[in-house]
Amino acid sequence: MAITKVYIVYYSLYGHVETMAREIQRGASSVPDVEATLWQVPETLPDKILEKMKAPGKADNVPDIRPQQLEEADGFIFGFPSRFGVMAAQFKAFFDATSEIWARQALAGKPAGIFWSTGFHGGGQELTALTAVTQLAHHGMLFVPLGYTFGSGMFEMEQVKGGSAYGAGTYAADGSRLPTDLELQQAFHQGKYVAEITRKLKV
Fold this sequence. Notes:
33% of the residues lie in helices and 19% in strands. By secondary structure, it is of the alpha/beta class. The relative contact order is 0.21.
């Protein structure tokens, strides 16, 4: 059977989204005949600013992606931290650079999921996904929400858990909180779920 390519494309400033992305890759890779690849969008902040923000270095084993490379994939899972309820500017800058492939509608009909990190409860666990859908819509991509396919984990009330019917998510708080086991389980599920759908839709 032909290989189905799923690109997990993310931006991570302090590592929370990267941790989720790696678990999503594990989930997608668990699907037979799926090749799941991690990509980062380019950083737009100067090194001096990143140093003042005490941001750790980027993963050196995850390459930066160029907009044209999106055409190689059969499906996507995009991840980013939230900034006032919308995707981080670095990821928006990447989408802004896709006008040439948008003009050709080269990504139309390809499935795409979304995952994210927010600071606190009011930081946009649902709004970040809703505002990101506009990018997918203009490209003609097919948004793949999780719905409640994660099962009982969607109804967890005993612990803080990010994510929603729109996708997997985590809370970073002041930066010291790491994704929980339950959040990582949902990330794995999203990777597997979107990969399965992408494989079904591959022509």
